[in-house]
Amino acid sequence: MRTLQNLVLRFLSLAVLCGSLGAVAYVAQAADQQPAVGSVAPDFKLLSQENLPVSLKDFRGKWVVLYFYPKDFTKGCTIEAHNFQVDLAKYEQKNAVILGVSVDTVESHKAFCDAGGLNFKLLADTAGEVVAKYGSVRETGTSKVAARNTFLINPQGSIAKVFLGVDPNKHSEEALAALAELQ
Fold it and tell me: Which domain holds residue 164?
């Protein structure tokens, strides 16, 4: 009888372990999957460079260009942010706002905006939760940063277009063209 109990306990332990590993694999898989076009964009609340909370639902009724980028002050990210700033009036004419998200801090975003003359919101996702919700995690050695992905979100809050692994040199133009097509 004792041997049967040990066998049952071992089986249950193995089942729990396998279930846990499956859950971990599911979470890892979910972090790599972007929300599909037509699905409701995952909501979030993050702090902006002004240290004020910003939620996606704050922008219902507007188009949102939600762009993820790896790091403030790096070459590609600086180019991409600069190009969005240059085109900002064109986005505003299309009833669109630009929201940049990275795992950098509020303070880093403030300095980046000040240095680059950026007049749109950069959001601090230091825990990487929103980056993961949008399947935009990129591992770099021992740390994780945001992958260079963009989501166009329509005024009703649904994903209208997804750009993966964008070229920072021409991405603002691509996003504007897609926005024009979608409208």
Answer: 36-182
Residues 15 and 64 grouped into a single domain? no
C-alpha to C-alpha distance for 15 and 34, rounded to whole angstroms? 30
Structural domains counted in the chain: 2
> Residues 47-72: what's their mean pLDDT?
98
Tokens of 98: 């630009």
Residue 90 · residue 63 · CB < 8 Å: no
Same domain, 173 and 115: yes
pLDDT in tens, 109-142: 999 999 999 999 999 999 999 999 999 999 888 8
Q: Are residues 142 and 59 in the same domain?
A: yes
Query: What φ, ψ does residue 123 adopt, rounded to 5°?
Result: -110, 135
Q: Annotated catalytic sites, by residue?
A: 77
| pTM of the complete model | 0.82
Provide the 3-class DSSP secondary structure of residue 120: coil
